[in-house]
Amino acid sequence: MLRSPKSPPRASSQLPESCRLPAGLGGGDPRGPVPALRHPQSLASEGEEDELPEEEEEEAAAGKEGRAPEPAAAKKPEERSKKQQCKSLAEQPAAEHGPPGKRPENKPRVPVRYCTLGTRDSARSPQTLVEVTSFAAINKFQPFNVAISSNVLLLLDFHSHLTRSEVVGYLGGRWDTNTQLLTVLRAFPCRTRLGDAESAAAVEEEICQSLFLRGLSLVGWYHSHPFGPALPSLHDIDAQMDYQLKLQGSGNGFQPCLALICGPYYHGNPGAESRIAPFWVMPPPETLLVEFYKGAPDLVKFQELWSQDQTYLDKLKGSLAARTPKDQSFTHILEQIYSLLKHSS
User: Fold this and answer.
1) 64 lies in some domain
2) Using CA atoms, how far apart are residues 283 and 12, in angstroms rounded to an integer?
C-alpha cells in the first residue's frame, strides 16, 4: 500500500567522463539517473552557427553501444509535437522558479543522504541538497547511453560563470530508439531575469523555434548552483520528475529527459574546472509494489473499464484523492505511479 508520509524521490547523477549512471522511465518504469559521456569536438556556441557538420555530430553521438541517426529534416506534424513538448517543459521554470536567473546562493548548503530524509514536511527546506546514488549501488543497469557535445559543456560552463545568481537553459538533441542513445548537441541559454515573465515567454518561444529549425528535439535542461556543489536540491528533484513525465507524454514511447547541474565557483571542486553533473530521478519505494506485481496474471488491467464511465485507473485515483497529502511534490509522485500502472497493465 502507499505510505501516507511524503517520501521524496531519489536522485542519481554524475560520474566522471565516460561513466554510466542509472537511468529510467522506460515505458513508465523509472530506474534512476543518467550518464554523461564527453566527446571531443570543435568548439562552437549556440546561435552563432548553423547545424553542426555531420562529422562533428557523429563524434558527439558516438557512444559505447550505438550511434545517433543521420540528421533529417523534421516533418510538420512532428514539429507541432516537438513544440508542445518544448512549451510544456519551458513553462515550468517560468511558473515555478520564475524566469531563469534564480536567487544567489550566499549560505553554504550541506548535502544530505537520501536515506536520512525520512518524510517530507513543511519544515524541510526545498533547497536542501541531496547526494546522488549510482546505479551500481542499487543493482540496476543503465537502459541507454548519453553522448554530450563538448560545445554544450563549453556554453553551459560559460553561462554559469557570468552571474552570482542561478541560470537556466535547455538542451537540444536527438533520441535514437534503436540504439537507445540520447545525443545532446546544443545548449540554449535562457537570456532573461528573475521576475521578468514577459521576457521569459519570448525567450522560450525563440528557443522552441531554434530547435525546430535545426531539426532537434527538446531532451533536457540545465541550471547552475554558483557557489554550491553540483548536486540537486529537493526542488530540483521535484522539477526533474515533472519534466520526465512531461517529455514522456501520454503515449507508449520512451523519451528521456536529462538534467545537468553546474557548480562554477564551488570551492570544493578539485581545481579550476567546474563540476558539471547529470542526474535522473526515480520515485520513492512505493513504486516497488508496482514492479512486484508487474507481469502477474492477476494484475488489475487499469486501462479496462471498471464501470460504464470509469476505468480501473480512474477508480484508483478517485479512491486515493481524499487520502492524498495536499503537497504538490507528492502529486508528482502519484502521477509517476499512475503512469507506471498504466503501462505495466
Assistant:
1) yes
2) 11
What are phi and psi for residue 191, nearest 5 degrees?
Answer: -95, 80
Structural domain count, the chain? 2
The pLDDT tens digits of the residues spanning 256-299 come to 899 999 999 999 998 999 999 999 887 665 556 776 677 778 88
Q: Considering the domain boundaries, does residue 2 fall inside one? A: no
- On whether residue 237 sits in a domain, the answer given is yes
Residue 317 lies in domain: 290-344
In 3D, which of 232, 283, 234, 9 has the Cα closest to residue 125?
234
- What gap in Å lies between CA 296 and CA 268, rounded to an integer? 48
E strand or H helix at 91: helix 76-92
**Pairs from 289-297 (Cβ < 8 Å, separation ≥ 24):** 289/1, 290/337, 290/340, 290/341, 290/344, 291/29, 293/344, 294/29, 294/344, 295/344
pLDDT in tens, 156-213: 999 999 999 999 999 999 999 888 899 999 999 998 876 677 888 888 899 999 999 9
Q: Is residue 77 part of a domain?
A: yes
Q: What are the Cα distances from residue 14, in Å, to 208, 258, 298?
A: 27, 11, 39
Same domain, 60 and 169: yes
Supply 227's cell numbers: 557557489
Residues 19, 41 share a domain: yes
